[in-house]
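Q: Here's a chain of 500 amino acids. Please give me its 3D structure as tokens.
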Amino acid sequence: MGLGLQLSQRLTQSLVLAPQLQQSLALLQAPSLELKALVEQELQQNPVLEEVPEQDIEAREKSPGSDDSETPDTPDFAEPPEDVRVDPATERLANDPVDDFQAEFEKLVQMDQDWRDHFSQANTVTRSSAEDEEKREFMFNSITVEASLSQHLMEQVRDTDLSEEDRAIAELLIGNIDDYGYVMATVEELAAANNLPAEKISKVLKVIQSFEPVGVGARDLRECLMLQLERTGKQETLEYRIIRDHMEALGKRKIPEIARGTGQDVDDVQEALARIGRLEPRPGRAFLPVVEQYVAPEVFVVKNGDDFTVTTNDEQIPHLRISNVYKDLMSVRENDAEVKNYIREKIRAGKFLIKSLHQRQTTICNIGKEIVKRQRDFMEKGVAHLKPMTMSQVADVVGVHETTVSRAVSGKYIQTPQGVFEMKYFFTAGLQNANGADVSNTSVKDMIAEIFKAEDTAKPLSDQEVVKMLTVKGINIARRTVAKYRDELGILPSNLRRVY
């Protein structure tokens, strides 16, 4: 059989998104803070774009004859670039007589040099006084950096009288302690992996278990709790015996079984369990990094009289326009075709970006208005009155595809009279009550939480009893659905909630 090359053609269909469409979708899906970064990146890459100065925005808002008075929902960056005003420096440059492109270019270079000279004079280095240097040093020394759990333990190792060999073992053990303070590997595993005597590792582990925080270096929850009681000299207490001898029954809250095993009354066992509940099951929790999340709402809902006003957050987005300098360059006849084509493409890309930003804000605003319209009872009365709503319903009213609504609400928040919520929070499935009206599953979940909150702890309600109580209220729901919602609410089963 001979080998050879063969050329063939094949016709296929595939969906390809244009670069501009991809950019538009990315702007729509990005939250406000991420969108600001994308716009600033585009400002650096596209020279024809410039940000509208704040004084121009304020003057346009105060002007009684401005376009903003006619279209209050339209953000500043959405105005036609030709109608915006330019700053005085750019206006002087645009109105100067220009003979050719070289003269225009020299003017731009001279302006750039003037600004460089201005900043170089304004930013001249001045020698600081001794008092200023002392204040500066104090400021840097005052900046605190939280130590990790491993760093905290290693500092305590340095304060011990361990030998160099034992300190190396201590460092090995600390490297195997997780963020919650537990040793993840057994002594036997560490001994086999590092060719060390298990007795020596156990001896160093005992030293680490004497460190702060109390309970660190434990191999399981039982040992962690026992270490905390031993540190305070409570080895002879009932709670210590329960943890030591009845840990499995404790996890299942089999209080009568624990009472029989310890020979104590049920009330005494419950009091001991309450004291056990005040122990720290995760000693390293205090050293976990604190992640602070800041939410910038995309939509604001404010009640004005009997109606609600919906506005979008435009403060986080730079207000853009096309620079008049480059529009004037296009009118210079002496410029060659390559220069004009370059400027034309950049202007076209800039206008598309401005249009995409306007379209994004308009879409989000329209979705917010539809949410408020359908969830008016929620805005006035709270979560219990949340109604079921799907993205397809909102998409039909707004006039976009369902996937567009999904992108528009992804990772975005809305500030309402009831608080700040993720926009996806309002899109929930529903159940029908006895009257045929739709009830949001979020409202049903809130009702279940209130039922469990008001129950008798000595006789906790079962899931089937909750089903009967909801049926009386006109809501037909299956027992497994109640169990699902209870798990989502973090509520234990009835046998684990009972207080004897």
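Q: Can you summarize the key feature?
A: The radius of gyration is 34 Å.
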